[in-house]
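Reproducibility note. Readers wishing to regenerate the assembly model reported in the main text can use the exact inputs given here. Chain order matters: entities are listed in the order in which they were concatenated for prediction.
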Amino acid sequence: MNIEKFVREFADQYDDISTENFTAETKFKENDEWSSMTALSVIAMVDESYSVRLTGDDVRKSTTIQDIYDIVSLKVNG
Amino acid sequence: MQAFIKAVSYYLPQKQLNNEELAALFPEWGIEKIAAKVGIDTRHIAADDEFASDMAIAAANSLFTDHDIKPSEIDFILYCTQSPDYFLPTTACIIQDKLKIPVKAGAIDFNLGCSGYVYGLALAKGLISAGIAGNILLLTAETYSKFIHKNDKGNRTIFGDGAAATLVSTSGYAKIGEFVLGTNGAGAENLIVKQGGIRYPAKKTNLVSDEYGNESSDSNLYMNGPEIFSFTSEEIPPLIEETLLKNEVLKTEISQFIFHQANQYMLTHLRKKLGIAPENFYINMGRFANTVSSTIPIAMAEALREKETATGTKWLLAGFGVGYSWGATVITFN
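Running the prediction on these inputs yields the following structure tokens for the assembly.
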């Protein structure tokens, strides 16, 4: 897995806000667009691109994109 | 004895809540974008004095009228709801009386949500196979609107009220095939109305706002949407593969996959994951929203009008949700 690629894939789940400045350290819930629909999109993206199950709880307890990346990495390698 | 679907009808309450009204109530919600993703234009909402059993009776009356069926022919009522009239008696008993179904008929309620229709077909098939009944009135009816807090914009967007009536019989137009069912109560708390039962009798509690700004109390419907989505993505593809195997059919032999119409976003994700072409995957919920246990029979009634049902045509029906509970079967047209 590649963190730069993951950040882009994550950023693609937002339609309205500018995500050009998104990095691994971006706090992904701290913007106007974050909603349960975005959470769904992130779970769908992880399922499609990495074939692992990200849970609602995984998203709830995460703050940065790096947090999600670490969870996904663990599942992919587990 | 084999079991068949003989007729399907549905009922929707008159009152509607459309996207414009939701936009006016929740200007910050961005309903246009959300509605486009979930594929819902409007939802029907039961009147204050209209209850699930009233809607089930209306659906049954439509079934009788539209398909020339007499109440006297019914020998069993299966009523699926999570909004019973009372703790007791069983709502199906009240429905028997109101529909003038013979006193010799059996009647039970069963409490399931989005998987309820498929379970109802399984129970009906069991009753027919065992020679216990021959003309089963399967009713599904739900009024989640009465559980949802008025400030819960997410659930108000997704759910609509509705009811459906299906006649399952020893003859009919589509034979009911083999079932795959499943349950995982570990997910119970992710879709729940916590208060109002015996464990937590209803009382007023403080409103809690979830991390997405949806308000509810423990006496309201609570849904952890992302978690339900995650569960569905994991559990439903294997359910479909097993159902195909058990019915000895290939994916390409199913002309319509009719899943519980949860929301278009989830359905499209499942469709792609399963590698099903859009033309073989039925989505029709824009005018109905998610009516819980009635989405499959409503979609089926619509698909029956639109789609080819030549002899040998196979449709796969799959329900999944609250419980967690899931189930699927294949029906084959004569």
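We highlight two features of this model. The interface with chain B takes residues 15-16, 29, 35-37, 39-40, 43-44, 47-48, 53-57, 59-60 of chain A (CB under 8 Å). Chain A has one domain: 3-14+27-77.
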